[in-house]
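Page header: ASSEMBLY MODEL / two components / 540 residues total.
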Amino acid sequence: MNGFRAMLGKEMQVLYTSPLAWAVIAIFLLLTGYTFSVWLIVGQNVSLVRVVHQSAVLLLLFMPVITMRAFAEERRHGTLALLLSTPVDEMALVLAKFLASLSLVCAMLIPTLLYPVLLAHFGHPDWGTVQAGYLGLLLHASALTALGLCLSALSTNQLVAAVMSLGLGMLLWVLDSLGRMLPEPFDVLVVNTSLIAHFTPLSVGVVYLSDVGYFLSLTALGLLGAVRALARP
Amino acid sequence: MVVMRGLSRRYGRKLAVDAVDLEIHQGEVFGLLGPNGSGKSTLIRMLTGLLVPSAGQIAIAGLDVLKEGPAARALMGYVPEDVMLYPAMRVHEFLRFMGSLRRLQGANLTRALERVRARLSLHEVWTTPMGRLSHGYRQRALIAQALLHEPALLILDEPTNGLDPQQIIDLRELIQSLVPTHTVLVTSHILSEIERVASRVGILLQGRLCSVLPLSRESRYRLRVLAMPDDGVEGLLALLPGILEVLILEKRIGDALEMEFVLAADASLDAVARALTEAKLPVVGLQAVTGGLESRFLALTSRIAQV
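Prediction written out in full:
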């Protein structure tokens, strides 16, 4: 536990002293802020559905950038060998990096809580939809983070890790439209592995346990994959 | 302290480490020598638990490195080669972090930090970011992290790389100050450095541990004979059963032979002299040898190359 806390603290320090993290937060807030303003002022819509959807797409693009360095950089700099030579186990290393990356997602999302507050000022937003939307974003981000960490653990080059992570995220996102072109029963199978198919209900305020389970399974798969990739070959 | 039995590691078809049997004793400095690609790094990676052996076992103080990984790793301090440490972290932050990973906390961690700061003379750079340290100080910080928890076994992988002469002398003094309370395993390409700090040295060639030699002055001898028995070196060796442990070097000049050897633990030089006298061999010299690790290393590598 002591080792896990130390690792988490170090990850937070490395992450938040990096200009990349602040650039990602700034661009995320700029883009979602723009969408929110246009949607509210021009579209006269008292809803966050559009912003939540756009945030999911932005996370798809930004999470690989956040997770790419997690293990690939440690491996390239030789510090991974140093960490693995200590009594701390691989799971603690992976979880520390996972939570640190997820904290950055929280740092991106917390300022956007201003949007529902503004909506409440001008109208009567559906709070259930807002809560489900944020839950969906957190689940979506945790799955992408875990997959990104897994691919970073498999690579020594952070750019390769980022490209692979982006590719996998995009594939999972568009699998839905590809799946619909397939004959039964493959269509259902493929559509159900798609990120968007499970995210859309959450973004409009409908919480199915199957969708929550899908994101949690993907997260567990990514984390276990990262642990396996670090395990002594 | 360290026991390796039949340790092998295969990468595809290539056998990087081939059935190594080795014991490193408590409180000694053991040097591991070998040219590039000889399997030194693979052996170290298996010892530190970073790599799983294809066959064989490794134990540190009786703990199996694979089955009791965390407990075995808690006993060791590891200084890897060519590490680029976290540039934004200050030296004390890095050491505190590594100390926490090594299960130190509270007052114990604070005491350990003070101890390594004094021992490695890190006062000047204590609050300097790692990215701004000179190579020598980076190496000191790396050694400091490995000593924080007073490990029973310290593993130094090419520790003198990139150090200036004064830093090499400081490192040598540090290693010497660690015995006999710590066991040290050090790898290096610089034979003279190994010779100065190690009490025994293992020579690894093409993945095989070809020889383990004691480096104390008294244990190595040079013998010169003007004529060999009829069956050559083999016949000469047959005259010394149980006396001669390792034949290090043999050089023939016509009928004459010069050889260097290590005596078996319970053998004496008198026994060698007696056996040679009884065989009526024309011995012209039998003396203790100092230094010369380089010549022995070259002799071994050339012998392996011929094979």
